[in-house]
Amino acid sequence: MKSITRLPHSRLRTLVGRGALSLGLMASAVSPVAGSIAMAQEQQPQPAANASGQLNIPANVQIFGKSDPNMRRATAIVNGEILTGTDIDQRLALIINANGGKVSAEEQERLRLQVLRNLIDETLEIQEAKSAGIEVDSDEVDQTYERVAKQNFGQDPSALDKYLTSIGSSAASLKRQIRGELSWQRLLRRNVQPYINISDGEVREMIERLKASKGTEEYRLGEIYLSANDTNRSQVLANANQIVEQLKKGGSFVAYARQYSEASTAAVGGDLGWIRLAQLPTDLANVAASMQPSQLAGPVEIPGGYSILYMIDKRQVLTADPRDAILSLKQISLTFPKGIAEKDAAAKASSFASAVKAIHGCGEVEAMATQLGASVVTNDQVKARDLPGALQDTMLKLSVGEATPPFGSIEDGVRVLMLCGRDDPKTSNEPSFEEMQSQMEDDRVNKRAQSYLRDLRRDAVIEYN
User: Fold this and answer.
1) What is the pTM of this model?
2) Domain count within the chain
3) Is residue 189 in a domain?
4) Is residue 151 in some structural domain?
5) How far apart are CA 123 and CA 117, in angstroms?
6) 343 falls within a domain
7) PpiC domain location, by residue (predicted)?
8) pLDDT in tens, 58-113
9) Which range of residues forms the domain containing residue 395?
């Protein structure tokens, strides 16, 4: 079962922000700390319920007692460590905020259960790291928190503290997540990575494949993977369809991937990185081949479960892409008075457009903006591909000194982008031997990490309150 839907471009791509030129991939409210991106998750079919050596479940099941399998308690004790309702509420607030607050009561309950499962996993990861003698000190957590504040929120830590409190979360909740991810990554580097061996022959073979595929398309995909077996397949499919519906309504793919995906890429918002179709399972490759940037597809049935795909971008292998051009831009913005009528706003926008056309190059922008009562923001390091799709095409057709047509709204005002310079990309170089080897190692480490976490869950003592 699959479907392809185009999502609003603003969900995962850049917006030209209010009052400033805001560039780069939009981050989820829960920022990934892990630095590596696994290229695909390990997918293994689940054994049949009655297979030899596996579970022995009769065809006619009789339930004794009044236990409701759909009921879940709010808190848990994981190997003696308490997870409180406050812990769950504050983490849930981050996800709801990442979705613009547009989450139904029913969806919030499903998210609450998922948050609890994630907190249990996070607790197990921190506990395992401590048992291995790995401690992440508070200074390191604070440094990462400060970096998250600046890179993803454009704020200093104290401002981020206040912001998190205002949405019902807390700095402590985000710092705990940071501590969990740092602890887990450090544990994997000690207990898993040293035992991953990628031979020189494997690396050379992968590089040769890359050279042979020069000029073919490669894709940057996001994935939400949900495992399923014969006993829960219909329930998992229903859950996948509900996630798709929430994404169609504007939910953050990154946030949902972090909370729901069972792939190792969940920590980075489901981002598989740049891959070729040959690297995907056949069922996913067939779907991805027909997708365009900003499209959503799924749920797609694959061995072991279901996947939901999001096409972030695509390009040609080892070929220069015009969208990698670095642009020097000036954004000229004119705000409207509060309560202005639509016809009056349209008239002002028209006058603004005429005035901008009369500007002869970027050197006259500031003087003209002063006359118009407009503001100017300059950015000399804008990659064309980081602009919204409609603006990408427009900007790449402009000559230096030309401006885009006006865009905006009554609430945000009207603005234009003027092209002041453009550095076209050079021919894309193949990855170095070391880069390819590192990428292959990361992929295998992440696959082992899934197995490691499954073992921790199986051995855990968990009491629900």
Assistant:
1) 0.53
2) 1
3) no
4) no
5) 10
6) yes
7) 216-313
8) 555 544 444 444 444 457 888 988 888 889 899 888 888 877 777 777 778 878 88
9) 322-423
